[in-house]
Write a structure and sequence with these properties.
Layout: H1 3-15, E1 23-25, H2 31-40, E2 45-46, H3 49-55, H4 66-79, E3 84-87, H5 96-109, E4 113-116, H6 130-146, E5 152-156, H7 170-184, E6 188-190, H8 197-207, E7 211-214, H9 222-228, E8 232-234, H10 238-256, H11 270-276
Length: 280
């Protein structure tokens, strides 16, 4: 992809956060799932790190190498015409210099945006110190601008998801981080596991930046999220896990019932898969 076209896609992705409609993202984990998302009519393709990790044989949470993740991102970006924003976990590095390199490699892979987490492991002790996370975001912003493709940064804090620290200060600490991330250059901020409408509405007002909410059980529907002022909603690994649930259901039926093929009724036809991937 030439830099001019890539920069145009980055500008489009950023504009999609401006409303008035909420940006809805059905996260893909490989080329064919990305093509399905594109074919249905979504405005952009987001990846899921958990989904990519699972297809490569890893659990989620920084177990995949940067090169392995970027290889999948590249395949997805080549498969679709839409802007692609990649879930790059905590950036696969602990320093601003490493973040700048991640930004440049992500652009080479064809993506125009990224998610950046502030956790490097599975518990609250792995949360990146706020000043360092701010520097990481600044490094991505500066390096991608210098490369000619200003990446759309969706900066995430896992204070509610992990969760981290006392419940009574969780909201204030989330706001502190998300406001700092936006000031450092993030285009959108993300607090997964915030579910109730009252807290979401308060976050929208407090962070003063486009807010991403993770779609999960207990979260208001998209119409309500849009009414609350949420700019972006994504499903994370939800589609991938739903696909695995269907896989298990059909596999069990094959083994246990032996003669019921009705479960295949919703399977994508063989010819359709080939068409989506450019054959026929």
């Amino acid at each position: 992809m030439d830099k001019t076209s890539q920069a145009q896609k980055a500008a489009l992705l950023k504009k999609l956060h401006d409303g008035p409609r909420i940006l809805v993202l059905a996260n893909a984990w490989d080329a064919i799932s990305a093509r399905i998302v594109e074919e249905i009519g979504f405005s952009a393709v987001a990846t899921t790190s958990a989904g990519v990790a699972a297809t490569l044989g890893y659990p989620d949470g920084q177990r995949v190498s940067r090169d392995e993740m970027l290889n999948v991102v590249m395949r997805i970006a080549r498969a679709v015409q839409l802007p692609v924003t990649a879930d790059m976990e905590a950036g696969y590095g602990g320093t601003p210099v490493e973040m700048a390199e991640t930004a440049r490699e992500l652009i080479r892979a064809g993506a125009v945006g990224l998610n950046l987490e502030d956790m490097t492991g599975d518990d609250e002790s792995s949360q990146v110190d706020l000043p360092l996370q701010v520097e990481k975001i600044r490094a991505i912003r500066e390096a991608s601008a210098a490369a000619g493709v200003p990446l759309v940064i969706n900066a995430r804090t896992d204070i509610y998801l992990t969760p981290i620290g006392p419940a009574e200060t969780r909201f204030e600490r989330t706001v502190e981080r998300l406001r700092a991330y936006a000031k450092a250059g993030a285009d959108c901020v993300f607090s997964p596991a915030v579910k109730d409408a009252e807290t979401i509405a308060k976050l929208v007002k407090a962070v003063e930046a486009p807010l991403n909410i993770l779609l999960m059980p207990g979260v208001p529907n998209l119409n309500e999220l849009e009414r609350l002022g949420v700019a972006r909603a994504s499903i994370g690994s939800g589609l991938m896990r739903a696909t695995l649930g269907t896989t298990r259901k059909i596999a069990k039926a094959m083994l246990e019932r032996r003669d019921d093929w009705a479960l295949f009724a919703e399977a994508l036809p063989y010819a359709e898969v080939n068409r989506l991937l450019g054959r026929g």
